[in-house]
Design a protein that fits this description.
Blueprint lengths: L5 E4 L3 E5 L5 E6 L2 E4 L4 E4 L3 H18 L6 E4 L4 E5 L2 E12 L3 H6 L6 E11 L8 E2 L1 H6 L5 H23 L3 E15 L2 E7 L7 E5 L9 H4 L5 H11 L16
Antiparallel strand pairs: 1-2, 2-3, 3-7, 4-5, 6-7, 8-9, 8-11, 9-10, 11-12, 11-13
Length: about 250
């Protein structure tokens, strides 16, 4: 498709003006970052894999009635999505201890939590996306109490869906983060899942071996990130099950 006006560029994606009012084109880059972009690399094929995996997850959520910004995939790297007002928060759901919660609370990685724990981080790279409470969110007007209730409800539904899908292919969903957007139909506002859902935004461990199949492979120098993401895609049926030298996707 013809290149359109760039609206925003982040660490892993670019948003362009969409072909119709109220739409955007979301382009997935091959860039990989970690530790608030202190570690960077270009991983060939990563954007293609994340595009297809996010399409798979967003489509599945739509089929069970969870509203998302996803409209359709345009090509191997681009999606057509609905424009929305992004709430400046990352909503994190943790099923097992890993990463920052293990560091903060001294819980051994891999420990199952008593129940899914929902956390919020304020989206600001210059501050390192700090953890915030509902009190902060309400006081600074980032979201209302009703918004927060709705965000938790959406996050738990996403967690239920992703946990089941992953369990069926032998993968444990350790945690994930999502972004939430506001869309308006006249005077009526509702919240939808936006951004992406991919191994970039989830921790995924093989149930049998504990092998990491997510961005921790890049963060911790554990091997090939493309191989890890390709394995997730193969298990979910997005890629063929036979090994490939490079990620070749099913149309």
């Amino acid at each position: 498709m013809a290149r359109r006006k760039k609206i925003y560029e982040g660490k892993a994606k670019i948003l362009y003006e969409g072909p119709e009012p109220g739409t955007l084109v979301q382009y997935f880059k091959d860039d990989a970052t970690a530790f608030n972009a202190e570690k960077k690399a270009t991983i060939e094929g990563k954007g293609v894999l994340n595009n297809r995996l996010s399409e798979f997850f967003m489509t599945g959520l739509g089929q069970i009635g969870v509203p998302t910004h996803f409209i359709r995939r345009l090509n191997m790297r681009e999606q057509l999505v609905r424009a929305c007002e992004i709430i400046p928060l990352e909503v994190i759901v943790r099923n097992y201890a890993a990463g920052s919660i293990s560091e903060r609370l001294g819980i051994e990685e891999g420990t199952q939590l008593p129940r899914p724990i929902v956390e919020y981080c304020y989206k600001d790279d210059s501050l390192g996306d700090p953890l915030v409470t509902e009190e902060h969110i309400a006081a600074f007007g980032w979201a209302s109490q009703q918004d927060m209730d709705d965000m938790v409800s959406l996050a738990i539904r996403v967690n239920d869906f992703l946990s089941g899908v992953m369990l069926a292919v032998g993968i444990r969903l350790i945690d994930f983060k999502i972004e939430i957007g506001r869309v308006y139909d006249g005077d009526f506002m509702r919240l939808i899942v936006a951004d992406e859902i991919s191994p970039d935004s989830c921790r995924l461990w093989d149930i049998a071996t504990g092998q990491k199949l997510d961005k921790d492979v890049f963060r911790r120098d554990l091997g090939s990130l493309t191989d890890a993401y390709s394995e997730v895609a193969r298990r979910l049926g997005v890629l063929p099950k036979t090994p490939l030298s490079k990620p070749t996707l099913i149309n």
